[in-house]
Specification:
This is Arginase/deacetylase. InterPro entries: Ureohydrolase, Ureohydrolase_dom_sf, Ureohydrolase_Mn_BS. Belongs to the arginase family. Agmatinase subfamily. By secondary structure, the protein is of the alpha/beta class. It has helices spanning 3-18, 51-62, 84-87, 93-99, 119-128, 137-154, 186-195, 218-235, and strands at 41-44, 66-70, 107-112, 130-134, 159-164, 201-207, 241-242, 252-253. It has a six-stranded parallel sheet with strand order 1-6-5-2-3-4, sandwiched between helices. A two-stranded antiparallel ribbon has the order 7-8. 40% of the residues are buried.
């Protein structure tokens, strides 16, 4: 199989989709270079490499975008010395995207906890344009501060959200190819996504779901529910308020 050819074909397909007429207001006209409304697509996968052709397609409309990347791995592996076939993997696509100037230097990871190959891996990740929120940072700083850090990092730029299901602890989402212990819970992930509502989203994905490895469909259920949260976050202007009707707590801003 020719990886590069497959990536090119996906880019063509995605470009076609996001240039179709948008149904209703998508809040993208102010971000798009052509001033037009474009569809915002949530992609389901599958191998995380699909983000590369998606970013290439989005770049044609929005220019460089900020990426919010939830994953247990950085996916910014070095590609020096590799053949064209070897360069494109699910662990290096962000490096290639950086080389092609598809992303801003205001991107951010969340949930990182994989084993590192050494300090140069972290330095390289910074060069690609990412800050890192580790899985443990959620324990140390709390959900509200994680949300604030992400929102501050991407600001008002066009934002692409990418979620590898292995950001969730494998006890709650086992159906994935490269599980890492010590992940976030589904509830924590849902709360963070809801806290990102109102950002300038231009697309999103949830990937690396492998149904053959699932137990009782718990991974599929989690993924489907997170997609719903993506869609809501794309449509509303601000995060939900804390508390709910009938609760003993007064409604407060989630980010206070």
């Amino acid at each position: 199989m020719d990886n590069a050819k497959a990536i090119d074909q996906m880019e063509v397909a995605y470009t076609t989709l996001i240039n179709r007429p948008a149904v209703g207001a998508t809040r993208t006209s102010a971000l798009a270079n052509d001033g037009m409304e474009h569809p915002r697509i949530v992609t389901l996968g599958g191998d995380h490499t699909i983000v590369l052709p998606i970013l290439r397609a989005l770049h044609k409309i929005y220019g460089p975008v900020s990426v919010i990347h939830f994953d247990s791995h950085m996916d910014t592996g070095a590609v020096e010395g590799r053949t064209d076939q070897e360069r494109i993997t699910h662990g290096s696509y962000f490096t290639i995207a950086h080389e092609e100037h598809l992303m801003t230097n205001t991107s951010i990871h969340g949930g990182i906890r994989s084993k590192m190959g050494g300090p140069t891996q972290v330095t390289h990740d910074e060069t690609v344009g990412f800050q890192v929120i580790s899985a443990e940072d959620l324990d140390d700083y709390g959900i509200k501060n994680v949300i604030k850090a992400i929102r501050k990092r991407v600001g008002d730029s066009p934002v692409y959200l990418s979620l590898d299901i292995d950001v969730i602890d494998p006890g709650l989402a086992p159906a994935t190819g490269t599980p890492e212990a010590g992940g976030w819970t589904t509830r924590e992930m849902k709360r963070i996504i809801r806290g990102l509502a109102g950002l300038n989203f231009v697309g999103a994905d949830i990937v690396e779901v492998a149904p053959a490895y699932d137990h009782g469909d718990i991974t599929g259920i989690a993924a489907a529910d997170l997609v719903h949260d993506f869609l809501v976050a794309m449509q509303v202007d601000e995060p939900p308020k804390a508390g709910h009707k009938g609760s003993p707590w007064a409604a407060e801003d989630l980010l206070q």
